[in-house]
Amino acid sequence: MDLGIKGKRALVCAASKGLGRGCAEALAAAGVDLVINSRTEAEITQTAHEIAETYGVSVTPVAADITTAEGRAKVLDAVQQADILVTNAGGPPPGDWQDWSRDDFIKAIDANMLSAVALMQALVPGMMDRGWGRVVNITSQSVKSPIAVLGLSNTARAGLTGFVAGMSRQVAGKGVCVNNLLPGIHDTDRATGLDAGVAKSKGITPSEARMQREATIPTGTYGRADDFGATCAFLCSQQARFIVGQNILLDGGALNATL
Q1: Can you give the chain as a three-state secondary structure string?
Q2: Predicted confidence (pLDDT) at residue 232 exceeds the cutoff of 90
Q3: Is the pTM value of this prediction over 0.90?
Q4: Among 12, 48, 116, 128, who pairs with 87 as Cys (CB 3.0-4.6 Å)?
Q5: What percent of the chain has pLDDT above 70?
Q6: Are 164 and 178 within 8 A, CB to CB?
Q7: C-alpha to C-alpha distance for 125 and 174, rounded to whole angstroms
Q8: Is residue 232 within 8 Å of residue 26, measured between CB atoms?
Q9: Integer distance in angstroms from the first to the last C-alpha of the chain?
Q10: What's the pLDDT tens digit per position in 154-200?
Q11: Is the pLDDT of residue 254 over 90?
Q12: Taking 90 as the threshold, does the pLDDT of residue 82 lie above it?
C-alpha cells in the first residue's frame, strides 16, 4: 500500500533502537525524511547513517535528552517544522507503590507525559496552519491494563492519554490526527531489563522469566519492532485521516477484554 506520505518530514524520538527505530524505519520505507533523536550520539549517528543508506531518505540525527527542556530545544531547532511527530521516551523503573516519592512521580510525569505535550505544543500549530499532520504517541499497554510494578509509568502515561483524548478532537478539523500506540511486551532492551527484574525476584534465569511472560501472550511470542513500526506508519498515512484520539493496542492479545 502507498501510504501517501513520501516527501513528508517527521520527528521520531528515542529512535536509535527498539520501538522508536522500528517507527523510523517504517516511515523511511514510505519515503519520509527524518529527524531522529536519542541520548547517545554514537548510536543515533550510526542509526541515521544506516536508515539513510537503506531507504534513500534524508535522516538528521540529534543527540539530546528529549525529556529535558534543553534537549527538546535542541531537537526542535533541528526540526524547525514537521508533518509527522512520533513521541517516545524510556519508561521509569519498576518498584513498589509504597516506596515512590513525589520526586519519583514528577520525574516520570516529566518524561512520559509532559515531554510529549511540549512537543505537540511546539509542532502541532504548524501542522494546523498547513492543514495536515499526524502525531503518534508511544505509550503502553498499561494504560488499558495497569502493571502493578510499573505504577510510575501507569500514572504518567494515563495522564498523557487523558490530554490526547481532549486535544485530538480540537485539532482534527485542521487535518491533524493525533493517536496513541500502546505496546505490549516487545523484544526490546526494555523487555530484557524487565525480564532480568522478574528473574531476580523469582530466583530464576532471565530465559525462564521470558518464557513465563511469553506464556501470558496468546501469540506465544514477544512483539517485533518492525511490526510496531508498520502500525505507526499506517497511523501517519493519508488513509488514517478518520482515526482520531484512539488508543491502538499492540499486545499479541494479552489483554483479555471485549472492548
Answers
A1: CCCCCCCCEEEECCCCCHHHHHHHHHHHHCCCEEEEEECCHHHHHHHHHHHHHHHCCCEEEEECCCCCHHHHHHHHHHHCCCCEEEECCCCCCCCCCCCCCHHHHHHHHHHHHHHHHHHHHHHHHHHHHHCCEEEEEECCHHHCCCCHHHHHHHHHHHHHHHHHHHHHHHHHHHCEEEEEEEECCECCHHHHHHHHHHHHHHCCCHHHHHHHHHCCCCCCCCECHHHHHHHHHHHCCHHHCCCCCCEEEECCCCCCCCC
A2: yes
A3: yes
A4: 116
A5: 100
A6: yes
A7: 10
A8: yes
A9: 28
A10: 999 999 999 999 999 999 999 999 999 999 999 888 788 878 888 88
A11: yes
A12: yes
Q: What angle do CA 225, 77, 139 make, to 5 degrees?
A: 30
Average pLDDT, the chain: 95
> pLDDT (tens digit, 9 = 90+) per residue, 13-53?
999 999 999 999 999 999 999 999 999 999 999 999 999 99
Of 79-88, 184-193, 217-226, the least confident: 184-193
Distance CA 59, CA 6 (A): 14
Residue type, 164: V
- 84 closest CA partner among 141, 13, 143, 19: 13
Residue that the C-alpha cell 516520570 belongs to: 108
For residue range 43-76, list pLDDT tens digits in order. Answer: 999 999 999 999 999 999 999 999 999 999 999 9
Q: Is 259 exposed, middle or buried (0-12, 13-18, 19+ CB in 10 A)?
A: exposed
Residues, the chain, total? 259
The neighbouring-strand residues paired with 37 are: 62
CB atoms within 10 A of CB 125: 15
Position 184: which residue type? G
